Description:
Elements: E1 10-17, H1 23-30, E2 35-42, H2 52-74, E3 80-83, H3 94-108, E4 112-113, H4 115-126, E5 130-135, H5 139-151, E6 155-161, H6 167-170, H7 175-185, E7 192-195, H8 203-213, E8 217-219, H9 220-231, H10 273-276
Parallel strand pairs: 1-2, 1-3, 3-4, 5-6, 5-7, 7-8
Helix pairs in contact: 4-9
Amino acid sequence: MPKDARGWRSKFAIVAPSTNTIVQPDMDDFRVRGVTNHFGRIHIPNMKVQNDEEFVALVDAIGATLYAAVDRCMTCEPDHLIMGMSALMFWDGRAASEQRMQELSDHCGLQVSAGSFACEAALNLTGAKKIAVISPYFPVSDKNVTLFFQDCGFEVVRFRGLKCSSPVAIAQVEEATLRAHVAEMDGDDIDAFVQVGTNLSMCELCSELEVEYGKPFVAINAATYWHSLRAMGIYDQFSGHGRTPAPPLVDVGCPSHNTDKRGAWYLPKVKPPHLAQKT
């Protein structure tokens, strides 16, 4: 069968809100040779968000045009679908999110990688049980994210929701602010940190923080792309990738997570569990 000239290993369709300015450059940074990324935008306005009700309206707006964005991407005949937005795939807990993802998979005929399940898979590899979560969202979403991780068997010890005032404002959160939140949240009772919200820029920062704090930091965009690569049987591993580090996840069997002062990225040579059984 003929192969795509640039995406001869895999073509990823990635859908993200039209307001999201972080997930595309993040995932382009993680792209490996023979893999191409093809973005479809979920049209939403840059809605002001000041309370739970307005945040729910934002989630509803994303859901309303999600399938149309997926359908546009399908015209390039991709091999795998990546959800470049996260709130919808945490909503109402793990079972409801899994059903939602399965419905999307049935619709497009592809396996789907979503940030919620990717973070679960990444955390399972680290052995972490007690986690701290950083989110750009409002309390109504934070409750859904907490429920999802609890359903996965994790204890959410601390949660910091930033209550960003609009979708675009999420990408404007400064590194110093994020570092301050991490410092306030950390403790001996935290095994790992998780960052959710694909428009919150933390991939590079999480790699730095992992070195500084000596514990896993899972950035949702990095975890999702790793999940997608493994789902397609792509097991590339690389380290010292310029200034584009990501959570230094390691092969199963290693005694601990592995990092170095260069911000190395070690991708596990395993397929995410919920996809492994489908091969």
